[in-house]
Amino acid sequence: AAHVLTFDRQRVDFVGAGEVWLVSSDKAFIQARYVSTPFTNGLAAMEAVVVGGPMLKGHTLRITSLQGRGVFWDATPILLAFPSNASLGEFGTISYDDRGKLAGATNNQLPRHIVHAFLPLGIDVQVMRWDHHINLRLRMPKQIKQDGQCGNFNDQKGDDTRDEIQARMDLTVAPGEMLFQTQLPPQGAKELTLNDCEEQRQRHAEYVCKEANPRFEGEMLKACMFDVCFEGRGYAAEDALL
Hints:
The strands form three sheets. A six-stranded antiparallel β-sheet has the order 3-4-5-6-7-8, with no helix packed on it. The chain is built from three helices and 13 strands, in the order E-E-E-E-E-E-E-E-E-E-E-E-E-H-H-H. By secondary structure, the protein is α+β, with helices and mostly antiparallel strands.
């Protein structure tokens, strides 16, 4: 499952595989690809992110998991060494190293492979690359006509529920709007909730999560418990929840 903290600080979970809009706006386009894998027990996890739109004048920046194809500026592989950095010319800079962590992360023992991109419009993209999925942190100013899985950034967290976001727009990227070079074939990703986790396993998951971070509560605790229940302790750690 995708655990999203919107720009208006609302926690919301999304399920399902495919390419979706994280940010659709006047000048900035950001799309994610969710893939169902055996490593997540059939649940969909973010495998890649791509940035484009008028702000990049037709160019795209694509970042995948470690087992994916890599980091690309258009069709050209970049950041082939670790660590490394590159210039995107008038469009900004990008680097690849082990510096930084994602919000909520408490496990500092895992090896980090982090891409940092500083792009036009003040957009700051940080991607932590794991073997089969990625974690994304996105910082940016409000944009005109903005919406997507990351919300509409109108300073009202109440309208960033999954139902409200999906009522405002179709999150699935249409073929003519696809920034990825290929479209993912239809996948039958599982759609589960925490209620599908049997009671004893839920109690164990709650114990594991609270032991890792006693401050976890509410939606953050539920997200951690979900990952431990269905995708395992290792995935929960990589998902910055342990």
